[in-house]
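User: Hey, my collaborator sent me this sequence without any context and asked if I could get a structure. I don't really work with proteins. Can you help?
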Amino acid sequence: MPTFRTLDDLGDVTGKVALVRVDFNLPMQDGAVTDDTRVRAAVPTILELADKGAKVLLLAHFGRPKGERVSTQSLSMVVNPVSAVLGREVMFVPEIAGDVVKQSIGILGNGGIAILENSRFWKGEEKNDPELAKAVAANADFYVNDAFSAAHRAHMTTEGLAHLLPAYAGRSMQAELEALEKALGNPVRPVAAVVGGAKVSSKLDVLTHLVTQVDHLIIGGGMANTFLAANDVDVGKSLCEHDLADTVRGILAAADSSGCTVHLPYDVVVSKEFAANPPSLRTCNVHEVAADEMILDVGPQATEALADVLKTCRTLVWNGPLGAFETEPFDTATVALARTAAALTKEGSLVSVAGGGDTVAALNHAGVAGDFSYVSTAGGAFLEWMEGKELPGVAALQI
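Assistant: No problem. I've predicted the 3D structure and written it out in structure-token form, which is a compact way to encode the shape of the chain:
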């Protein structure tokens, strides 16, 4: 595993200024934060530094203001919610560099916490402008990145600053990197990957990379229909990307030469309409799907067989649901397999790492998100990691 400095490598930080990159791009409705998960993820790093006497300056982006000051995207809006989660007073600084920040640091006591303005108000943030990075770094002693979810972007606050100041991974970033290393970097074999979701086209790079990395690739969701169709199965009016048949055959051939077994459903849950508990609901073999039916979930026999596959594995990476899980009863396969993975994790026989927005929602729906070894809330960064790409914000932290 590449080596990173963590907070364990810090000496005495009393009175030192820490620039901490966090993900405070929070969902808002009517001016109020609707989900503070990202704030809670940053708490261990923020409080550890504050309790050791550092002056903690929090850097984050918020929305897409495109280099302009937009009042509705000011990070001043998250100060009270962040303060409530931390249980500490939090100062707001309307700049990210210069004298205003310098003066604020002077006011801030040792252990004090401040949120700097939305870094995307400056055009140089997304351009990774070295001059802006120097101006921001001038007010700090060291840099901590605790925002894995933004690590796939080479921006000033995620990549540029790491080259100008002593750089460390925060506790959330450290946990994420250690979990990912266990999942695909240096995993205990056999390794299984569950990849679901609507379209093969959105996960082509993931699939192409995974067949060279894992022992078992379990395909679910709408993309399973595209794989079935490429194998000359008539999928009726199911969601399917028929134009990708040759691409899918290429992925299957690559899997074959890498010794990766690809698992596709052989019984499926179908309906003539996509609605909750429709009257036309039935379970059938994949070769019995009628022309006016659509496949909406993996069937019970295939789900049981997939559970048996997981029981032979030691590591699992999961991204995407097996069926249209938001609508009952098409959540059945996802919930059943997630509960199997959770039980195997709890008994200590499986390391399970999951990530991506739909995946987190599906695991919460199944009531097992807390039982997986690690659940990543990072969407784009998690997918790019699954694609085998180097993440600039992570690479910049390597010693």
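In plain terms: The longest strand covers residues 17-21. You can pass these tokens on to your collaborator as they are.
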